[in-house]
Specification:
Distance between the termini: 121 Å
Strand content: 15-25%
Oligomer: single chain
Shape: elongated
Number of helices: 19
Low-confidence stretches: 1-6, 91-97, 183-191, 269-284, 360-365
């Protein structure tokens, strides 16, 4: 009895190791973690782990080339050492080879990568940001307060200014970008050449946070607002509430970043070199579409489905132009031209619409242009009724908001073209595109010429959640002139290939309908049409009747 109980109960150290390994395996495979641990522990360089957790070397700039915040590069340079000291301890990188430091290594990995509530993940990310700012000498309003409940990490308090919110968002974007850019380290520790990286515009996200907390009024004051203009900031609690309600994926940036860095550490150097050679020329591209990288990133952070990864990749390297199904400035405006581009695409799509309200005046180039979007889970169908299974509305510029389904109704999409065979209708259905609301009282309605869009108050809509799509919308319908419309296919290569096959099949059918086989008709000489024409030309001519 005694012998069996002593051999059946593992030691506390073995029990803890098994628990830590079980917890870590849910986030990353244990063999990969073993390789990353052995390479960081066996390296001659004591800074192997901080270097591995640092983002790839890059030269960053902002759209339009305004100056970067003075301490931005210092914050990114201190990101790796900060994460290593915060979660893995100062001596983790110098752990001797073997299993002596395996359990502490797993503890640190689980602290930052294990599945925890979203508020907890965001608090850890804010701690990293505050520590990186302190190391770089940058101003930071985030403070750490001891928690009376016994939490060893303490409580995150303080206030964030608009500039600090922007720096925090750029830091999170760089952490997401690093997954697509691998750093090359030679045998001698020589670093690769920095790549040129264009940071996304995050003004719409900063404004969204400020408006949600009441720091900026949701009215005409948002037009032309700039991050550098300063103003009232947000308390950390208000910022946390905004993140948990809008860009919910922001809290996952830290765990995703650490996992990606360990994958890069365990990867072969040849793969890293090939990765850098393919991405060096892609990150310094300007935004030329309505779907800018900043808007794609905001939408990706707000989703919790498989489309988030597609848009997250687009926010880093830009969308593949093969996924652009329709652009009014290229393919022409109008419902018929729109339909010729999207017909047969049976997958999720993102529709972006740029317009300006008539009250803004005749100057189209003014700063009062706004952009709204619709994310559909399925393709368009030509019907005279609403249809669809799911979808999202979003305000993309100047303020970002994501409006998911409410679950009350399913009037997600409406696409009605003129029927080929027209008949009299006492109450004809409107021709155009619509999203939400009901027929005749749509929340968003785009006319058949794509020249006018009508946006109604959310009170008419029970399909999508409440919220303003444009600043200072009010209760009355807002009529605006359309500037540009884009449709992006998010279904991947398979859906696009199926659409191409559908179009080829329709072209064949159309060509067959155009051709007329004259052999199927009788001879012209024997036709009644020729007899009638002859009679009309000379009705007095005597003709013998064939009997």
């Amino acid at each position: 009895m005694g012998a069996s109980s002593s051999t059946g109960n593992p030691s506390p150290e073995a029990h803890e190791q098994r628990e830590q390994e079980t917890l870590a395996s849910a986030a990353l495979s244990l063999p990969l973690l073993r390789v990353a641990f052995s390479r960081s522990a066996a390296a001659a360089n004591a800074n192997a782990l901080p270097d591995a957790l640092a983002p790839p070397p890059a030269s960053y700039r902002l759209p339009g080339s305004p100056p970067l915040p003075p301490h931005f590069h210092g914050i990114l340079s201190g990101l790796g050492p900060t994460i290593a000291s915060q979660f893995f301890g100062h001596g983790a990188a110098a752990t001797p080879e073997g299993d002596a430091g395996w359990v502490p290594f797993l503890r640190g990995f689980n602290r930052c990568c294990a599945r925890v509530p979203a508020s907890r993940s965001l608090a850890l990310l804010l701690r990293v940001y505050a520590a990186a700012c302190a190391g770089a000498g940058a101003p930071c309003g985030v403070l750490l307060q001891p928690d009376e409940g016994g939490d060893e990490d303490g409580k995150v308090v303080g206030e964030l200014t608009p500039e600090e919110i922007a720096v925090f968002l750029w830091m999170c974007w760089v952490m997401a970008w690093s997954a697509s850019a691998s750093r090359v380290a030679g045998d001698g520790g020589e670093k690769s050449e920095p790549v040129a990286v264009l940071l996304p515009d995050v003004t719409h996200l900063v404004l969204s946070a400020l408006v949600s907390a009441g720091a900026v009024a949701d009215d005409a004051g948002v037009w032309g607002w700039d991050i550098s203009s300063g103003g009232k900031g947000l308390k950390v609690q208000e910022f946390t509430s905004w993140v948990l309600s809008t860009p919910v994926g922001l809290g996952n940036c830290l765990s995703r970043y650490v996992r990606d860095r360990f994958r890069a550490l365990a990867a072969d150097s040849v793969e890293q070199e090939s990765s850098v050679s393919t991405v060096n020329t892609t990150f310094d591209t300007s935004d030329v579409y309505l779907l800018t990288r900043g808007r794609a990133w905001a939408i990706a952070l707000s989703l919790r489905n498989k489309l988030s990864e597609k848009l997250l990749s687009a926010s880093v390297i830009g969308m593949d132009t093969e996924d652009l199904l329709y652009r009014s400035s290229v393919h022409g405006k109008g419902l018929s031209r729109f339909w010729s581009c999207v017909e047969g695409y049976k997958g999720p799509m993102l529709i972006l619409l740029s317009a300006f309200s008539k009250s803004a005046g005749e100057n189209v180039d003014s700063d009062r242009r706004w952009v709204i979007g619709v994310l559909t889970e399925e393709g368009f169908e030509s019907k005279d009724t609403f249809y669809g299974s799911s979808g999202f509305l979003c305000a993309a510029h100047p303020i970002f908001r994501m409006l998911p389904p409410s679950g009350k109704e399913k009037n997600f999409m409406y696409c009605h073209l003129h029927p080929q065979i027209r008949a009299y209708e006492a109450n004809p259905k409107p021709v155009g595109l619509a999203f939400g609301g009901t027929i005749g009282n749509e929340r968003i309605f785009l006319d058949e010429d794509f020249s006018r869009v009508l946006v109604r108050h959310h009170a008419v809509d029970k399909t999508y959640q409440h919220g303003s799509l444009i600043p200072n919308q009010g209760y009355l319908p807002v009529e605006a002139s359309v500037l540009d419309v884009e449709v992006w296919g998010l279904g991947g290569e398979t859906i696009k290939r199926q659409q191409n096959l559908y179009k080829k099949r329709e072209d064949i059918f159309s060509e067959q309908r155009r051709k007329v086989d004259l052999k199927t008709f009788a001879s012209w000489e024997d036709s009644p049409e020729k007899m009638m024409m002859d009679m009309m030309s000379d009705p007095n001519t005597v003709r013998r009747e064939d009997r």
